Amino acid sequence: MKLQLLKRFFVVTLLSSFSTFAFAAGTTAGTDVTNTATLSFGDDIDNTTDVQSNAEVFKVDKKIDLTVTTVDVAAIQTKPGATGVVLTYKVTNTGNSIQDYSLSTLTSSTTAFDDSVSDNFDATNVLIYVDSDNNGAFDETDTQVDYIDELGIDSEKFVFVLADIPTENIANGNAAVYDLQAQVAESGAEGTKGADITADSRDEVDNKLTVQIVFADGAGTADGQYDGKFSNADAYKIVIADMAIVKDSVVIDDPVNGETNPKRIPGATIRYCFSVENSGSATASVAKIGDDLDESVYDVSSLTNNDIKIYSGAETFNCDSADTLTGLQSNPDATGSVDNTTGSIVIDLEGVDAGATKSVYFEVTLR
Length: 367
Hints:
Helix content: under 10%
CATH superfamily of the largest domain: Immunoglobulins
Radius of gyration: 38 Å
Largest sheet: 6 strands, antiparallel
Order of helices and strands: EEEEEEEEEEEEEEEEEEEEEEEEEEE
Number of domains: 3
Low-confidence stretches: 1-20
Shape: rod-shaped
Mean pLDDT: 92
CATH class of the largest domain: Mainly Beta
Distance between the termini: 138 Å
């Protein structure tokens, strides 16, 4: 009998744990995918018969993928001697299986933040903490540990690196760059760090009934593509005030020559000038000048805070013409002082901004 194949020759029915993808990463690893086919056929007298195929079953393999993100948008500013300074990272599981991740810090990167920060010192007491409440802010409840436990598919975890900053041989602008590296590890035992997965099944023949492993990760700052790792760099940057002071003097007048080519003879008026420059990248919130004038050499009996002038404007400060500047301010009475008996002077600049200069002058009579 001649068979007539129907127009709808076969129907394929897919049986799976998920009818659609449940995660951005795709079907979960280990899922059994079952597929059967039905053959429908008929003869010339319209008899039809359905024949079922065998069930074809395979397991979804494990796609290992992850990212490490530097949460800080710029190097964390700090100073020599600071302790427990925090860098913040985020580890995301972009693969299709729950995983543990081993965590480590590396000093292999020489730059961070698009090469704007260069590494030139090492911090001390470097520790890793995992964010207990995952709010992205370090606090005392966070756990010092070197792994992330059972991180779910499409899930993320904040990780902190804390370190102390040395006190010696550290200059303004110096930086310590640290890579946080996450290495994929076995999951399954909650509260226990799984063994690192150091190789995938790339060189193995496909085995449809076994969950095989495929590294799908990209290259981080300190690791390569398809190695089961990812890393990213953050940095500590030293930001301090770098202060310098220059002192100068000019003679304004003397009892013989007046203001015409005066000389430094007894009775002459001597003007002392100071220039204080902050070439650092942090404000010096406290900046005071102390000067001790020998009362046996100088007459300071009538000197007051109002006679000590401070200038922070844009005009060029010259000692011989300092009194002509606009915007001069007096030494503050509350925090500046003049001891008319001992000649001890304290001049309060009330801070000097980063990159700024403040200048001071006062006049005394030479005995």
